Amino acid sequence: MKFDPDDWRDIDWRNIDFGRLPVLWLVPILLLGIAVFTSVYTVQAESQGVVLRFGKYVRNAEPGLRFKLPFNMEKVEMVPVKRQLKQEFGFGTPGSTNPTQYSSEQKLERGMVTGDLNAATVEWIIQYRVREPELYLFKVRNPDNTLRDISESVMRTVVGDRTVDEVITVGRQEIEADALIQLQELVDKFELGLSIDQVQLKNVNPPQAVQRSFNEVNQAQQEREQLINVANGEYNKVVPRASGEAEQMIQAAEGYALKRVNEAEGDVARFNAVFAEYLKAPEVTKQRIYIETMRQIVPNLGKKIILDEDASQLLPMLQMSAASSKK
């Protein structure tokens, strides 16, 4: 019997008993639902999806709603590329979400030997991100554990190149910088697909048996530095002031010397000018000098009476009583 497509319009769908429909009719519907369900996925904002087709890397998927081939022909591995991950060495923070954040062998991790053959306990952390998801997933087996091993090796190398004093006191920043550079170089060499953001030393101490003695030595060194700073402060306060006073006295002496020289040169110039006039008219010059000198001297002598040598009859001319009373 041949089926006519126009017969679909004459079917009363409300009276059909679907329970009696052939099972084969439900198979396409079920397959369609599974296909839709397995072809849609979502990539979170802090992650990136790595799409695998039959186990082979195909592409990266950015955050958002995405589609892939259904029926697990393509699978997606989510990698948190924007999340900053952390690993702790020599200690462990409870409640961490990263399974490789700390190790159970913390005591062995923090025990190190410095370049001068002294023991030290070093605790540090590294912060990193996933930079290349495909390398992180497929290039190296257990990249996070590999990173722990590399970090411990690098830190032992860097600490082993320095003395115990540098490790515990003044060399911490240099150790962090060198460890960061060397760790990133090895991570790139092994193609782990990671980016190291920071290497930070936490607690760096001598072994427990000698820690008290080491603290006493550090305290003595701090007191020594404090005394040196106080002495330098006094030196910087006294010496500049004395230097300033000495410079002031030198400048005053130089000014006085310059004044005396100028005055002497002025006297010489005035004498030469008077001498030149004297050569032109000696008598007139003598008379002028005498008058100018007396003009300066007489006002300082008080009240004086000058008589001509030819004067006679002195008493009638002067009122001595009036003069003596005023005097």
Task: Offer a few descriptive terms.
four-stranded antiparallel sheet, disordered C terminus
Notes on the protein architecture:
- This protein has helices at 26-39, 106-110, 133-138, 143-160, 164-170, 172-189, 211-280, 282-297, 314-317, 320-326, and strands at residues 40-43, 48-53, 56-61, 64-67, 74-79, 85-89, 111-113, 119-130, 194-205.
- With 327 residues, it is an alpha+beta fold.
- The longest helix has 70 residues, at 211-280.
- The chain contains 10 helices and 9 strands.
- 16% of the residues are buried.
- Among the domains are: 19-79, no CATH class; 85-206, Band 7 domain (Tetrahydropterin Synthase, Chain A, 2-Layer Sandwich).
- It is 50% helix and 18% strand.
- Strands 6, 7, 8 and 9 form a 4-stranded antiparallel beta sheet that branches. Strands 3-2-5 form a 3-stranded antiparallel beta sheet, with no helix packed on it.
